[in-house]
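Chain A, query sequence.
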Amino acid sequence: MPASANPFSIFGYTFRGDTQYFYVVSGLSRVSYLLVTNLMRTRDGRALVAVRDHYLSAEIMASI
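Chain A, predicted structure.
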């Protein structure tokens, strides 16, 4: 038996079948990618990168 996606609904529209499921997941992953890339350009995003790279230097910057 081949694998298939179960029907689900978003905002009252019911998605049925693997093709519709693929397009929903593809769209959500693209939106997530755009949000994350834009987050990395903000002050908070740069702070996250600083903590990832070296927590001590991020701690020193926070105390200034």
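The radius of gyration is 20 Å. Residues 18-39 form the longest helix (22 residues).
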